[in-house]
Amino acid sequence: MRQTDIKLQELGSRLRLERLQRNETQAIFSARIGVSIPTLRKMEAGDTTVMVGSWSRALDIVGRSDDWDGLLHQEENLFDKYNRLSPSPSRRRASRRTQ
C-alpha cells in the first residue's frame, strides 16, 4: 500500500470521528458538505478519487480550513529569514567632495 493511500485513510478516519463527535448522520453531514452520501462514504474510507474541493468544504465545516495553509508551504531559507528579521540598514550617501 502506498503512503498516499495510508494518509488518505487516516484523514478519512479523522473526518468520520469529527462527524460522529458532532452526532451527525451521513445524510446530514454530506448535505452540509454538499456531496452525496456515497461520496462521503468514499471520503471516510480514504478513496483517492474524491475531489479536493469536497475535502476543502469538509475541512471548512469541521472548522479546520486553516490546515490547508500547511500544504505545499514553501519553506523560508535562513538567509531570507535573517534579512526579514534583521533591521534594515539606514541608507548612507557619499559625502560631497569639494576640490
3D architecture notes:
The protein is an all-alpha fold and 99 residues long. The chain has a domain at 3-67: lambda repressor-like DNA-binding domains (434 Repressor (Amino-terminal Domain), Orthogonal Bundle), CATH 1.10.260.40. Helices cover 55% and strands 0% of the residues. It is elongated, with a radius of gyration of 24 Å. The model has no long low-confidence stretch (mean pLDDT 85).
Quick structural summary:
This protein is mainly α and 99 residues long. The protein is built from 5 helices and no strands.
Q: Layout of helices and strands, plus pairs?
A:
Blueprint: H1 3-21, H2 26-33, H3 37-45, H4 52-61, H5 78-85
Helix pairs in contact: 1-3, 2-3
CATH superfamily of the domain at 3-67: lambda repressor-like DNA-binding domains
Number of helices: 5
The assigned structural class equals mainly alpha
The profile of the biggest β sheet is: none
Radius of gyration: 24 Å
Rounded to the nearest angstrom, the distance between the terminal CA atoms is 80 Å
What is the 3D form? elongated
Which regions have little confidence, pLDDT < 50, spanning 5+ residues?
none
| Strand count | 0
- Named at the architecture level, the CATH assignment of the domain at 3-67 is Orthogonal Bundle
* SSE order: HHHHH
* Helical residues, percent: 40-55%
| Beta strand % | under 5%
Average residue pLDDT: 85
CATH topology of the domain at 3-67: 434 Repressor (Amino-terminal Domain)
Output the CATH class name of the domain at 3-67. Mainly Alpha
